[in-house]
């Protein structure tokens, strides 16, 4: 049985922990706690999740030994700022991974792009990559409370011991990268890293600092990219993310396109002909 513990820094900052071996969905449990009147700053974690979800309602399976974690946070921040908590989560997870996992291999990424030496990469808007393959997904869900505050469930799923095989994109696991620990070890580091990154974010007031840190770890920056938006595909070069953390593409004519939501593909996949 996996043992989950909060880092001393998280305990000192007032975070609490609700740990399970198996759940339906940690995000769903977090929203249940909202309805029950929970005050927030609550981590809900499990080493098996039976009905997790990814973006756009896609299934996110979490077999035994992987990590399913959700942080429930409640505050008066603006909705646009709340949406950027996914970037905070990506940074916190990449910090945690760097602390506990052996260095990532250097070479050619699974999607044909280049890898950055010794670093996990962040794929806009909500994935963490290793060796160019998907290691983790992040999902935010929110609810407006009667008093005007927002409740945000920040869901983080990590392939610790296993990764899906029947998916249309490269995937990997920490076990495959040489990680000898378990989901509890990773969560301990994650709960610590969240404290620093959330303080930097500061209710959205520190978003520019988060944006700069995120860009330092961005996958595919300056590389060919395609984004599927509302059934059409836009191609160009990944220029940056803007002050609102929208994805910015430089198209062939030099114009800049800002994307708030869409499916992003890099390298050879970005150049492939549409179906």
TrEMBL record:
It catalyses: biotin + L-lysyl-[protein] + ATP = N(6)-biotinyl-L-lysyl-[protein] + AMP + diphosphate + H(+). The keyword Secreted does not apply. Pfam families: BPL_C, BPL_LplA_LipB. GO terms for cellular component: cytoplasm. Its EC number is 6.3.4.15. The keyword S-adenosyl-L-methionine does not apply. CDD domains: BPL. This is biotin--[biotin carboxyl-carrier protein] ligase. The lineage of its organism: Bacteria, Pseudomonadati, Pseudomonadota, Alphaproteobacteria, Hyphomicrobiales.
């Amino acid at each position: 049985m996996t043992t989950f513990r909060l880092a001393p820094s998280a305990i000192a900052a007032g975070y609490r922990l609700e740990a399970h071996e198996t759940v339906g969905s940690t995000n769903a449990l977090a929203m249940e706690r909202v309805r029950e009147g929970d005050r927030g700053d609550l981590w809900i974690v499990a080493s098996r999740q039976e009905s997790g979800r990814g973006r756009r309602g896609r299934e996110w399976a979490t077999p035994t030994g992987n990590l399913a974690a959700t942080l429930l946070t409640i505050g008066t921040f603006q909705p646009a700022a709340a949406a950027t908590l996914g970037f905070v989560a990506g940074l916190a997870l990449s910090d945690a991974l760097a602390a506990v996992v052996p260095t990532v291999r250097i070479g050619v990424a699974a999607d044909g792009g280049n890898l950055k030496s010794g670093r996990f990469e962040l794929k806009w808007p909500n994935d963490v990559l290793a060796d160019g393959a998907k290691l983790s997904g992040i999902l935010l869900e929110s609810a407006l409370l009667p008093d005007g505050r927002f409740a945000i469930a920040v869901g983080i799923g990590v392939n610790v011991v296993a990764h899906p095989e029947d998916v249309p994109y490269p995937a990997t696991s920490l076990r495959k990268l040489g990680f000898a620990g378990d989901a509890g070890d990773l969560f301990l580091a994650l709960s610590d890293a969240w404290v620093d990154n959330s303080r930097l974010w500061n209710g959205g007031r520190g978003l520019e600092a988060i944006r700069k840190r995120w860009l330092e770890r961005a996958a595919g920056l300056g590389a060919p990219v395609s984004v599927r938006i509302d059934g059409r595909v836009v191609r160009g070069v990944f220029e940056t993310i803007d002050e609102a953390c929208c994805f910015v593409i430089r198209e062939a004519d030099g114009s800049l396109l800002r994307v708030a939501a869409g499916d992003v593909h890099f390298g050879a996949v970005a150049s492939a002909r549409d179906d």
